[in-house]
Amino acid sequence: MVFLKVGMNVRWEATLSVQEMIDEGVRRAYLNPDNKLRASVLADPAGKRQNSRDNTPAVVHYEIVPGDGVEVICAAKGGGSENKTKMAMLNPSDSIVDWVLKTVPTMGAGWCPPGILGIGIGGTPEKALLLAKESLMAPVNIHELRKKAASGASLARTEELRLELMEKVNALGIGAQGLGGLTTVLDVKILDYPTHAASLPVAMIPNCAATRHVHFHLDGNGPARLEIPKLADWPDVTWKANANVATRVNLDTLTREQVAAWEPGQTLLLNGKMLTGRDAAHKRIQDMLAKGEPLPVDFTNRVIYYVGPVDPIQGEVVGPAGPTTATRMDKFTRMMLEKTGLISMIGKSERGPAAIEAIRDHKSAYLMAVGGAAYLVSKAIKASRVVGFADLGMEAIYEFEVEDMPVTVAVDSTGSSVHESGPKEWRIKIGKIPVAA
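Given the sequence above, the corresponding structure tokens read:
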């Protein structure tokens, strides 16, 4: 996504349109041979849904402003958080805070909390949504607003709302990955706009912890030069498998009895070979089974990982390979467990009632990998090859060989879900918002 503020005095010396120039930039960035990024954009969304292979076209928002420069904000945003967008046409007398507190728990964990909530208020339905998205482009600065409030300075109503929502959303106890905890949001951003007397449009769009933004200006004196981030500026992330607090699992000899013995919240270290598959692969499997056609791979006693990996570069086995939102596969879960021999699944976020029921009926289990940490997750993958549906690109069926890949038992064979029990326990611990009976 690109937000453009174009000065009224700007003159373009180009044969390409602005959209075409942006698309060419996106194409070059995503296909950079030194650092290819995942191609996630599908053309013909209501039809063939074919991957454009370079993430074009970009979604561009234009604003014409005074001046003779161009301000550019680029955001590479994941579908898991976009899919949790909420919008409502409230009555003018309704409470925005009440709506947010009622709505956030319905968003599940597919947006990979802790993250940022962008809220747009006013205008018309589409204006509120655009305001919500644009608000996410601003830096995290809730700490500065807290200092301002503590100093006794007067606050605008939107600033008061930010502080109130920051405290109350965190008091919901949803926590990191939706498993329960103190921190659900790192900031709440709000933009508003005048609206009709009969209306109160409100939109809310989350941004996950993986915030991929860049902001620069063009003034006609050549390209913007952006400093490459220094790894030294970031914490040194290290992780070693600890068999004392986790259970090692051999996927190559895994049995249904072992799966049935896993407990909610248990940490497992997966070793051996697993299969992958997400939306397009599941839909094709469903169609093939309906026609009586053989599948390209045997799922009997196998585990499937909901992932669309990035292409490898510079000797990598695979590029970043973080989990995708598992709820999108809920409608396929019973079919996969009943007709393919599958015994367990790995993804991110919660599972819905239909999937949990199927898991319970088949004494299966759902394991949650860490969302928003795709590069780190990929370090556990020691081998990768495509074994089916190669034409689907990153949505093909891969076989990964993993070593000590950490996961959490999110739904056990009895249907117990830590995404239900965890936040409830933490809301009680925090004690600021009553827990419904």
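Residues 271 and 403 are 5 Å apart (CA to CA). Try to locate this feature in the token string yourself.
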